[in-house]
Design brief:
Helices cover 69% and strands 0% of the residues. It has three helices and no strands.
Length: 64
């Protein structure tokens, strides 16, 4: 697996190390988990949003 560096402030690094320790994973794995969770939360918010009128029209269309 290829890796790269990410520059973060000291406070965030300490928090990331604490999180990794609590989860019993590496710091890199903790970042991967955090990114995945943020992505899932964003998708969840999109799914929870009201449908646009064109979305409702499409869902209500008689396609048969």
């Amino acid at each position: 697996m290829q890796t790269t560096s990410v520059r973060i402030d000291r406070a965030t690094h300490l928090e990331l190390k604490r999180l990794a320790s609590e989860l019993e994973v590496s710091v890199g794995e903790a970042v991967r988990i955090a990114v995945r969770r943020a992505t899932q939360e964003r998708i969840g918010a999109q799914l929870a949003a009201e449908l646009a009128s064109e979305d409702n029209a499409w869902l209500d269309a008689d396609l048969g």
